[in-house]
Amino acid sequence: MIERVIVEADGGSRGNPGPAGYGALVKDAATGEVLAERQDTLGITTNNVAEYSGLLAGLEAAAELGASTVDVRMDSKLVVEQMSGRWKIKHPALQPLARQADELVKRFRNVRYEWIPRAQNSHADRLANQAMDAAAAGEPADDPSAAKVVRQDVKASPTGWTGAQGVPTKLLLLRHGQTAMSVDRRYSGRGDVPLTELGQGQAAAAAKRLASMDGLVTDGEAVPIIASPLTRTRQTAQAVADALGGRVETHPGLLETDFGEWEGLTFAEAMDRDPVKHGEWLADTAVPPPGGESFDVVHRRVSKVRDELIAQRGGRTLIVVSHVTPIKTFLRLGLDAGPALLFRLHLDLASLSIVEFYPDGNASVRLVNDSSHLV
Known about the structure:
By secondary structure, the protein is α/β, with parallel strands linked by helices. It has twelve helices and 15 strands. Strands 12-11-13-8-14-15 form a six-stranded mixed sheet, sandwiched between helices.
């Protein structure tokens, strides 16, 4: 049983009235972990009916989890103010939905309503838009009048033999091209070095490879391209953006490991300088280099980036241009593998890997260390 949860809900109609759908999720208030997701189409109805439908779905999911305290967060001022008792419910189509919500509220010890900006409701908004896409495509809804709400889990249909369900977030993971530091096989973390001439050619070859792949440009718009803010990754990402006609965003969570005082040293030089510490670092991912960052810290950092990308752009394909350790970490998350993977997996410069994360928690690694475009 979960003591306290957060319900985020949204709904919309394309035409108002028009093809409509809702989305809702329940999160553990203490950890932020997503415990449940709901979405469904509603046939032809209004934005307000869809918003209420999302609220009902979220409250039902919270009740099923056994929550006693619920914080409802929505970007619908109308629903929040009406359910808080500050605004009257005059529209006849909304009154039965509000009564249903009031009945659900009785199942909890306490329910609090809070209005939030749309930008803070992106996860529920994404679920609602997926439902509206289905509604616009003509998939049947149980009740076009939306006086009745039928809940449907996001994990609607399994994908292949893996059992993964829902629309995955696909990450195309591209390592940057060659730098002077990589030529000499030196620890290259936060040092901001540019690509060599060969590295620029590698970036161009990777960009050409991505430009030949289906689905990365739709109606003249390229998928998001997100890179570590260092020069070598931005140069690589820009080559991709030029090939696809897109633009580069940067995210600090995609930075390479901070190697601290070992930055710029070779493996042998770091071992000679700090033999005991270097051995401890190789044996335990919780141990950081002197003045640097442990692999466990990097794992937590990249995990947060993964969760953020899914929350903001779930169900889409994204190109992520980063470094060895962050890319290995994404693959480790996809494989649900232990830290030994960091030392047993090799990634070439400008190599491409692909991992998909599904809304039901499953994942699928589709490609690892492909450098065929460099041949």
